[in-house]
Amino acid sequence: GAGVSQSPSNKVTEKGKDVELRCDPISGHTALYWYRQRLGQGLEFLIYFQGNSAPDKSGLPSDRFSAERTGESVSTLTIQRTQQEDSAVYLCASSLDRNTIYFGEGSWLTVV
Amino acid sequence: QKEVEQNSGPLSVPEGAIASLNCTYSDRVSQSFFWYRQYSGKSPELIMSIYSNGDKEDGRFTAQLNKASQYVSLLIRDSQPSDSATYLCAVEYSSASKIIFGSGTRLSIRP
């Protein structure tokens, strides 16, 4: 596609439920990032995929968070047993050369 | 020490003046630096990237990098109301190849 595509764009879930967020990067981009942005806050690094290398998971806040990527294609971010503090916009970005990254529109998650 | 630090603002600048945004970073071996603009409710968009010490100009924007001081800045000349946004500094951490963002500076251009 022309840009980074994320789905769902909005998700309201009950506390304790699992959610899955999807990211479809720009075709050919080998690097893929997930960030979290709480309301009025900066971007918090979660995880980074680069080609077939082991992902950098150093930003995942707890073991309730996990992410996968199929080759150099789609990625899913899964949050298990959601908590109210997980409410945020989850931004996916992709990059061809590890430098300039392009963001999707984000998945807005509200845990009630 | 945070990896990338910015003054959260808000920074208020009169229309037509120069807005100066600053950022410091902790990784001495970082090689790539970026400024992103984020409007409320929107995703960040890249304004400028800079890789070498000195100044880099693009239209009304100038990025300045000083690796010795671990400092990068963004100047916006002839500020316009449409420049009102949050400006995010980002640094590629070469040791890990991940891009880390600062918390952003809110800029408000007053007419």
Output the keywords.
heterodimer, A: 112 residues, mainly beta, 6-stranded mixed β-sheet, 4-stranded antiparallel β-sheet, 10 strands, globular, B: mainly beta, 5-stranded antiparallel β-sheet, 0% helix
Rounded radius of gyration of chain A (Å): 13 Å
The overall pLDDT of chain B, averaged over residues, is: 92
Q: What coarse outline of chain A follows from CA principal-axis ratios? A: globular
Order of helices and strands of chain B: EEEEEEEEEEE
Total strands of chain B: the figure is 11
Unreliable stretches covering 5 or more consecutive residues of chain B: none
Query: Nearest-angstrom radius of gyration of chain B?
Result: 13 Å
Shape of chain B: globular
- Tell me which protein chains meet in the greatest interface and how many residues each side has: A-B, 21 and 20 residues
Strand content of chain B: over 45%
Parts with pLDDT < 50 across at least 5 consecutive residues of chain A = none
Averaging pLDDT over every residue of chain A, what do you get?
A: 93
The major sheet of chain B is characterized as: 6 strands, mixed
Q: What assembly state would you assign to the polypeptide chains in this entry?
A: heterodimer
Structural class label of chain B: mainly beta
Tally the helices of chain B: what do you get? 0
Distance from first to last alpha carbon of chain B:
37 Å
Name the beta content range of chain A.
Answer: over 45%
What characterizes the major β-sheet of chain A?
6 strands, mixed
